[in-house]
Amino acid sequence: MFMKNKALILCIVGAGIMLYAGFQMLWTRYHERVTLNDIQSSLSQSKGNKNVPQKPFEPKKGEGFGTLTIPKLKKILPIVEGANPDDLAKGVGHVTGTSFPTMHDQIVLSGHRDTVFRHVGELKKGDSLIIKLDYGEFKYNIQKMSIVSSEETSIIHSTKPHEELVLTTCYPFYYIGNAPKRYIIYATPDQE
Predict the structure, then answer these.
(1) Can 11 be counted among the known catalytic residues?
(2) Global confidence as pTM
(3) Rounded Cα gap, residues 162 and 43, in angstroms
(4) Could you say which of 31, 157, 162, 170 is catalytic?
């Protein structure tokens, strides 16, 4: 009798965990869609393709301000200022303090491996990434990938006067819990 009750309890706990995880994923996708719709609406109202911000470009913390398109994955993702859990629940997080397109320095975008950056491991050298902001659209070509410790902080640094786009997510991709490593993608502006 005790073993039957124990098995029943384990099944209930397991089902509860699966329901919670499913709810979290749906909740994140909902917020991501809402943020993306707001950003796309805002970008469609912006004037022209100036490619240089008309004023200092300083999005507010938690604010959606642009999109990241990954053509190979057929993804258009919202970019939100900040990389804390609340920001990352809305989309790709721009690491505060790093640069923006045309500012000739390092731009760092972070995302969850199981939501926005779910298939970035499929990307290869030469694949393109496109950032769209209210002051223009900017294409980057992937140069390399690397895997580093989660403790590694030297990937975020100034690259002035050279512009570099860096995407970062947890690794391994299918790890349960806090992943011990980070998967980094480095891209440079397209020279077309």
Answers:
(1) no
(2) 0.79
(3) 26
(4) 170
Query: What's the pLDDT tens digit per position in 37-96?
Result: 667 766 666 655 556 665 678 899 999 999 999 999 999 999 999 999 989 989 999 999
Q: Is domain 2-189 annotated with CATH 2.40.260.10?
A: yes
Nearest to 192 by CA among 158, 153, 148, 141: 141
DSSP 59: P
**DSSP 8-state code for residue 46:** S
Report how far residue 131's alpha carbon sits from residue 36's, in angstroms, rounded to the nearest whole number.
Answer: 13
Catalytic residue among 112, 119, 157, 162: 112
Query: Residue ranges of the domains in the chain?
Result: 2-189
Classify residue 27 as exposed, middle or buried by CB count within 10 Å of its CB (0-12, 13-18, 19+).
exposed
Taking the CB of residue 24, how many other CB atoms lie within 10 A of it?
Answer: 13
Both tokens of 132, joined, read: 């769209």
* 19's tokens: 């329901």
Measure the CA–CA gap between 114 and 36, rounded to whole angstroms. 18
Measured at the CA of 85, the angle between CA 25 and CA 38, to 5 degrees, comes to: 70
Residue 104 a catalytic site member: no
Q: How far apart are CA 56 and CA 3, in angstroms?
A: 66
